[in-house]
Amino acid sequence: MPHFVYSPEPAHRGARFAESTSHYQRPSSQVSRRQEPARLDPPDFLFCVALGLVVRSRKRDHKTAAGLEDEISAQLTRAGIANHISSNLATPISSREWSITSELSIRSRPNDHHFGMKLVSPFSFFSKRAEAWQADIRAVLRTLNAHFELTTTHQCFTHVHIAPASGYWELSQAKSLARSALYFERCLDALVPPYRRRSVWAKSNRNNVYFQALSMTECFTQIDAQTSFSGLAARMSWCDADSPTGVALGAQPGVDFQHSTFRWNFVNLNEGGGLGTVAYRQPPGSTSGSEVISWVMLVGCLARLCCGPGGMLQPGEKPKLKSLGEWLIYEAEWSGLPHKSLLKDLVRSAVPVTPTAGTVPGMDADAITIDEDQRLRLKANDRDVASEKYRRLIKHL
Questions:
Q1: Does the pTM exceed 0.85?
Q2: β-pairing, 264-265 with 37-39?
Q3: Which of 93, 104, 148, 166 sits CB 3.0–4.6 Å from 378 for a disulfide?
Q4: For residue range 130-159, what is the model confidence (pLDDT) as tens digits?
Q5: 38: part of which helix (H) or strand (E)?
Q6: Domains defined along the chain, listed by start
């Protein structure tokens, strides 16, 4: 995982090296261990974040979501934050502005003037000008909190969409991220509330016929065998037709399909040619800028670590949250990210998950309520704002 190779050349100033990486095995070399390693820079990533929240105006009793969308847009505009309302399918999406729309997966309470809303950020470079995107996120959440009551339910979320800075994935990069997503699943589970570990909106990527009965080594073999982005997307986002999600969506018996409601959503890679974002969907709703920034840091640092040069994961060894946290924080330091303490606090807040005896590791109950059943159908034809932003963005890269 660490971006090092052994080299007789002096290491980059400030680079540090650990003899043991816990999860990773370094490439063999004839160079003496006493010589310092040279740092190889990892790839940078583009990202946008989608925030799903329950929102109510502090001053106005809106009867409809449309009225609340208008007020949110007006308040952001007054604060100097470029935005647009994207509920209307005819409205063009901008990759440089915040998008505001109703969120169908979150229950609204019109009689109480509370509505499920989604705000999707512009795309930004993760490590370049990080102070700018952090300031933008803080400004948006500060404005929202000043004029609206922000609350969260089990359906609320913080989704982080990423793609390489070039705009396109290499298949090897996408495979590396997929392996890390499976390997570190229980470590990442420790960072979220219990209800996001068993959510129908963020199911385990091992919750399918490809992975559920396999060892981690066998899962890696499945990933390594894929020769296309569509094949990889199928392994990571495959939904059984007879699962509660499949039944809710009216899938024909025996006709399994890809679906976005997994912890790591690889479905967008079906666009082909390395196009599309991968989204980490498990984090809960965030009501402060600091919370949002910490999740973006986590995803960006993990992507840089697993997709950059360095050693390989050892699937036969048990992942360790402590070691993962150390490398994430180290990557944040190397990337020069401001406010690294937010990532440190997120890692320190982890509550280790103890698997239930007799259950398959990574397997979720996938039991859903009547309300979730209905909302899965409502979301089936919903506008994918983040993907539209990405498609517009790559036209200008």
A1: yes
A2: unpaired
A3: 104
A4: 999 999 999 999 999 999 999 999 999 999
A5: strand 37-39
A6: 45-162 (3.30.70), 166-379 (no CATH)
